[in-house]
Amino acid sequence: MNAIAVMLITQAVHGLAYGMLLFLVASGFTLIFGMMGILNIAHASFFMLAAYVAFQIMAWSGNFWLALLLAPLAIAFLGILMERVMLRRIRRFKLGKALVLFELMLTVGIMVCIEEAVKNIWGTDPQIINAPDALRGLIPCFGMTYPAYRLFIIGLACSILILLSIVLFKTRLGNIVRAAVQDAEMTVALGINVPLVFTFVFGLGTWLAGVAGVAAGPLLTVFPGLANQMLLDSFIVVALGGFGSLMGAFIISMFLGELTAFGVQFFPGYSTIILFGFMAFVLTFRPLGLFGERE
Amino acid sequence: MKSIRAIAPPVTCICLLCLYIISMDIGAARAFTPLQADFSSYDPEKQEIPSGDTIKVGLLEPFSGQSASAGEISNWLLGWVVHDINSQGGIMVDGKMKKIQVIKADTATQPVVAKRALQRLILNDKVDFFVGTAGSHIAIIGNQMAEKYQKIFLNYSAYSVHLMNAQNFNRYTFRTCSTTDINARGLAYYFSKTPIRKFYILCQDYSYGQDFGASMKKALKEFVPTAEVVGEVYHPLWLKDFAPYLSKVQASGAEMIISSDWPPDSWNLMLAIDQMGMTIPVAGQFFDDPRMGENLKNKKVGLGNTVVNFHLCNVETERNSRFNKIFHERYKDNAKVQIDWPTGVVGGVIGHFYWFFDVVQRAGTLNTEKIINLWEGDTYESFAGKLTMRKCDHQAVMDMFVSTLVSPSKWSKTGNGLGYQEQAVRIPADIVMSPCPEGLK
User: Fold this and answer.
1) Which among A11, A147, A260 has the least Cβ separation from residue B275?
2) How many other CB atoms are found less than 10 A from the CB of residue B249?
3) Cβ contact (<8 Å) for A10 and B240?
4) Which domain holds residue B245?
5) Nearest to B276 among A123, A147, A218 (CB)
6) What angle do CA B364, B370, B374 make, to 5 degrees?
7) pTM, 2 dp
8) Measuring CA to CA, which of A117, A162, A204, B207 is 20 to 30 A from B356?
9) CA nearest B275 in A: which residue?
10) In Å, how far is B76's CA from the nearest CA of chain A?
11) Is the ipTM of this complex over 0.85?
12) What is chain B's percent helix, strand, coil content, to nearest 5?
């Protein structure tokens, strides 16, 4: 294969890997908004917290797989706690349209709390999570060699996309969730515990943030600014894809990943302008995002 | 009676002279000397806050956001010096011994936040001086506020060469760290003695990174005419994915990356090099962080990294050896602190704080004008060598030091990991210093 082809393929796979990581972060964000109408700004903080919890588990056990299993569960537990103790409570007040604003402020507060807690517990020094030995090094791919861990991210994100699609669109649980979103009162009348469904959705969304946090650990250093680092990109993905649209989040994540990679290759310095120009263009003609249905 | 009257004047004179000498002795006894304190009790998180009449120093740094660790490190280093001086009783100013009180102000590395924080420091907390700061775009705010409120601003960590040019210079700001120009000249001179000729410039896309890139190209042209810059890219601050950049580097055939990056970018760059299966070394100021070196799994990554700085712990001087010993003794068994040798910036900044307080001590006053007059042209013997404050642009003149990372190195945390070579290369000030900026005398 000639050098130009290798370069193009390499950049395409880089874009794919970064796009998949973005999708992992944004999927939980958009899921919670799409199903519950909550713009959870603390989502990126849950992502960061998962990376720290994984770092801690790694420090104790040295086992990345254990961290990938336990850290997202811990984050999901915290998410469930947040939904049941805070968000559900705030919904009991009849705040009308202002509810969205209060929920937003509440999640901002939680975001700040998590960031400060992280600083107090782990300090401000960057920390490193090493990829497991099985995923270190390069493996042959498309006639060249490519880092195994980045391929793992691609595989992990694809698996999660398929799993989520099956759960939401092919199972009874998915039907209940979608019914509760369409008409909560009718669903309650059918004897379904809708608050429990929402708790499940919120837990699932934060679990996804947790998975993304652990997966990102070996790619990025873990430090208290990690949440801010990912928040803007994941917000762009959700806004452009359409709040609540998993497919939209997936497509925009891929687009953003490829734009970043090829932007570096062909027009460094202009990729940010192109990205935000594209965002302005999309939102001008489709304010709900490319695949958005929910305001 | 007559004889008493006759001897009274000379006796009085002698008595007064004795009193003066005694008072001078007391003054001298009260003067602080670096590294006298018991540092075993020093904990930056539990710093003593002196009460009463104190010398108030504002510490302008990021304590939140992506660069919070830079602020915490500065707090640790300033705290080290303040702990030392306060444990010796403080500094004699305006006829009174005063302890130093540090007041922190968070910039969040954002100019708007920094400006507000600085106004609070000056107007509410009424600091006598302020020191800082990470980010040349923040230091420029410091320059402006120093001039506006006529407060001395010690800049020990913003390197952009433009900060002290004719347009931005003001007589209240003093820069003790090096500049992008000085660093670039030091590196280029060092490379002129090595066979490395293909360089790739990969810097952060803001004033410091762009200045460093430009300075590096200029310096390579001057010192290594056969050098080739095979690529040049400026990436956003706090980049999330270095892989696309590294693929370009790989394709360019570069032998060395030259980068201005500082943590977390410098860490993420090294991690990405590790992950991409590359071993290309990086030259810059912040690629010697032992916290990073200890955590990289591929032990070939980082080898050959070349650091340039105004201080390195492997510079052989008597003062530096003593400093190394005291610092290492304090931190060698401390699991929480991975920097157990006073590496480049760590040791250098501590030395610069000592210089600043030494100037205040010698001025014997908090009067801004008197301190400025004393500091301009002042010379100080720091740990790694002599520092002189150039009058024309308030830029410290100093030798620079370059070192390559090797393994095993006695300067690593474990004693056999990645760290500096045995001894740093000293590059004299007359090679690295640029002349006074145009328009300044």
Assistant:
1) A147
2) 22
3) no
4) 181-309+400-432
5) A147
6) 85
7) 0.87
8) B207
9) A147
10) 12
11) yes
12) 45, 20, 40
